[in-house]
Amino acid sequence: xxxxxxxxxxxxxxxxxxxxxxxxxxxxxxxxxxxxxxxxxxxxxxxxxxxxxxxxxxxxxx
Length: 62
Prior knowledge:
Layout: H1 16-21, E1 29-33, E2 39-44, H2 49-61
Antiparallel strand pairs: 1-2
């Protein structure tokens, strides 16, 4: 798999198992995962564009 980003939108009220797995307690929650599925960064609420962009770049480089 090459470098890139995959976007997955999960309805936490319908997929309660995934919500529990990632301990989602508020909506919106954005979770950045590395290619191995490890959580790199979690945002509860909506981050600013620059903050999200920086976190995504760091996740892809690390």
